[in-house]
Amino acid sequence: MTETETKRSANFIRHIVAEDLSNNKNNGKVATRFPPEPNGYLHIGHAKSICLNFGIAEEYQGTCNLRFDDTNPSKEEQEYIDAIKEDVRWLGFDWGAKEYYASNYFDKFYDLAVALIKQGKAYVCELNADQVREYRGTLTEAGKNSPYRDRSIEENLRLFSTMKNGEQEEGSAVLRAKIDMASPNMNMRDPTIYRIRKISHHQTGDKWCIYPMYDFAHCISDALEGITHSLCTLEFADHRPLYDWYLDQLDVGHPQQIEFSRLSLQHTIVSKRKLKLLVDKGYVDGWSDPRMPTLSGLRRRGFTPASIREFCKRIGVTKVDNSIEMAMLESCIRDDLGDNAFRVMGVLKPIKLVIENFDNDKTETLNAPNHPQNEAMGTRPLPFTREIYIDQDDFREEANRKYKRLVLGGEVRLRYGYVIKCHEAKKDENGNIVELRCTYDPETLGKKPEGRKVRGVIHWVSATESIPAEVRLYGCLFSDTTPETAANFEDSISENSLTILKDCRLESSLVNAKLAQGYQFEREGYFCLDSKYSSPEKKVFNLTVALKDTWSKSAS
Length: 556
Ligand code: ATP
Ligand code: MG
Hints:
Strand content: 15-25%
Bound molecules: adenosine-5'-triphosphate, magnesium ion
Number of strands: 29
Largest sheet: 7 strands, mixed
Radius of gyration: 31 Å
Number of domains: 3
CATH superfamily of the largest domain: HUPs
């Protein structure tokens, strides 16, 4: 990182880490982890955590583990594990051999739970769920001790092993920590450590029928891996006393938990559970639908890893909850594509235009720069023919001077080409314009015509030497600014977030369009080839982002 980059990404967590290093805390080591639960695909909120954890490790020559927090047994996890790995790698981070699974520690968790029982700090409780709720108390009222709280250590050990051996029914007993039923922090009121779930686990099969709770498993996983700074989101601040309590009782090491605010992004949701519902109910075309805020969706939409890392840098890391405007994310990809996208021409709503004084069987090869500000990106040939297409929106029979495009009797320049003049608009029986008849001025290639003013410049493609394509335009999935806080977020799903244009024409160079390369369709926006529906026979392009910020426009 350059010095300014480091400065810009400085935040309170980096200050803590730097200070710990200067005090030689943790023997001068920095070890972080990114701990996703494999119950869905990663979203833009996870990118914030990934950039933070891997970023700190990189900056301080430390390590960052990828740990699957798979303490919840479920069947579908392998797909999610694979997708998570692909997404972290795509974002540009490498965990090397440091891939871990909380389920690898199941034996260790069990031993440590037994150790707590032996210390008299855990007990098997047979209250049912309703009773547990009743005994827990409320925020303003202390809870009551469970009648099972004072069982002997021997009895607890025996009962806990019957739980482990499958001799107890699901829901009939749990192992609880013996802390304080009157604690003002509800998390400290004898929290559950283990519960019975008679479900196979995708990594451990049927070996276990008891599974540890997150709070117990997470702090121990951190400690076992030698994590120094355990970074998590703010909602875990109230769990920190419990994180510390477990580690204080068990001699496994003691990482420091530090909380930062969750990313929330306007007009979308960042919760795997809710995103899964969009997928399961068919509101979107899978997890990688280009409208999804998932990393796979953003990738398919044409976002680059660099643009997402830049976004994470710009939003920073604080302890203040706030919701970020979509315009911020879009400006990151727009800046990236502004520099790196190839300029091309694509006509989204074509109308045929015939240049009557151009030979029918002639193709003239014009030359166009791939990026007007970057010569290194080279040039490409543009075939110019008697029949071309322009966009329907670029022609009007009549218009005032503000309309800088083609009008009947007026002149306009074809981008990288000649000045043309329109003298007839042919219509069908319904009065729709079907063809424009024009002439071109052969003296105007790269030269201004003498003594007359041309209205503007429009894009075009050859009718005979262009390729057909489908173009997909995207709007926001949610009309609500903050769908996440809506009573029912499904109600704010926008009805027209996808527009499919089936009859577009693109310049012939796009026959070689590559995945993961951005293209600016001049005057239209930034686009990329769709990785799911595009094939050699059929090109499908996605709108990545408009050329200009449309948010400020719609607000004014
Ligand atoms: P979700 O509600 O989407 O499932 P989660 O926090 O339960 O989110 P995990 O898979 O447990 O998802 O998250 C892995 C890591 O990513 C955690 O450390 C978590 O704090 C972090 N993370 C998740 N969502 C966000 C977010 N919106 N902003 C910042 N970090 C996040
Ligand atoms: Mg979760």
